[in-house]
Amino acid sequence: MTSISLLGAAPDTGNLGVNALSNSVVHAIQERIPGADLCVFDNGKGIRRRNLRIGDSEWSLRGCGLINSRRVYKRESLAHMRLSQVFPGLMNPGIQTIQQSRVVLDISGGDSFTDLYGSRRFELISRPKEIALAARKPLILLPQTYGPFRTKKAHARAAEIVRRSHATWARDARSFEVMVDLLGPEFDSARHKCGVDVAFLLPAVCPRQLEGAVADWLGRDTHGAGPAVIGINISGLIYNGGDSAARQYGISADYARAVQCLVERLLKESDVNILLVPHVNVPQAEVESDLRACRRLQDQLGGKAADRVRVLTGQYSEMEIKWIIARLQWFCGTRMHSTIASLSSGVPSAAIAYSDKTLGVFASCGQQEQVFDPRITQTQELVDCVFDSFAQRAQIAPVLQEKLPRVLSIARSQMDTIADCCANL
Q: What is the CATH number of domain 212-406?
């Protein structure tokens, strides 16, 4: 049996983008290596069994807790893992799992292999990779973003990890350039490759129970009996974070104002129905909550929203959200993986993006002109640009449809190569 560990893809954070990465990898590996013993490191305690069901298929996985805690007595803490590599008698379950693995896969949450989010986050992302390397296990860095690295120390540490890895993949051309820079003279085209985000292969699953009003909207639109339905994803991190988030991420536009003006213009100048789609489901008291942002916007709209703006409030999985997004006529997202759900479904899409990672993903589909950056675009211009994308959706769709098969082919091919590497090491 092929034993594989998966790091950097905890499926229990409430972030459906990370869930999409986790379950896309699990699905791809299990399809290609039937019976693989796969352990996904998460935020739980100890080692547990759980099942992943997609359609008619169901797989049994292991979960292993891994948290960045200084409480060394906690066996799921990164501190306990580090100490147990020095003192094996501590019997850390995470270390034992890695040592028993044929190969260790790591995806860094897709975009977290950087010091942009602070030293604590960088430690949580980097240290498990170093633990795997210290255990002399082949480490494969799955398609992800590399950098930016603001400090020389972080750059040097990342370069050491990348150079010692068995194979590395970037998820777009821009990130591939950073990866090549990290490798320097050790770049080897046979081991270091440019691919696409693994979530392009995420299956779409029909929700077990869809909110009545939304089901009615989608049903009427599908049969041409009602107005078109479009979707908008609002990042709670930016919308709820206000001036503090704007300063942290260098955003010059008024994001909350831009989103409200966009929806008001859509209501005034079109007859579409608008579905607000959360993609990070955490308690609404937390600033990250997309649902909180959606409800605040709906309150701001007041009577203007009437029956044409609805918030998707159910607790849907990332695969169910993709199923819903795939039935929309146009989609605009700030959370990048919400837009991967739309792009991979062939839905004309726009992005309000405050990091370069989104531009690289859209470029892979020939859609880079549909990415609008609030760091360099002022509020009214941002609204105008996104509205123009909506207005041109009929022209955008054929270009996406032409490019998408190649992207999906690359996604399948890269997982074939990665699975073959896992099986034959």
A: 3.40.50.2000
User: Do the Cβ atoms of 263 and 297 come closer than 8 Å?
Assistant: yes
Q: Domain map of the chain by residue range?
A: 3-195, 212-406
The reported pLDDT for the residue numbered 224 is: 66
Torsion of CA 24, 28, 29, 33, to 10 degrees: 160
What is the CATH topology of the domain spanning 3-195? Answer: Rossmann fold (3.40.50)
Q: Is the pTM of this model over 0.90?
A: yes
Nearest to 116 by CA among 384, 284, 286, 354: 354
Average pLDDT of span 62-69: 91
Question: Residue written as tokens 């062939």?
Answer: 346
* Through-space distance between the first and last CA atoms of the chain, rounded to whole angstroms: 12
**Per-residue model confidence as pLDDT tens digits over 267-283:** 999 999 999 999 999 99
The 10 Å CB-count burial string (b at 16+, else e) for 174-184 is bbbebbbebbe
Distance CA 259, CA 3 (A): 46
Residue pair 22/118 in contact (Cβ under 8 Å)? The answer is no
Number of other CB atoms surrounding residue 22 within 10 Å? 29
How high is the pLDDT of residue 259?
Answer: 98
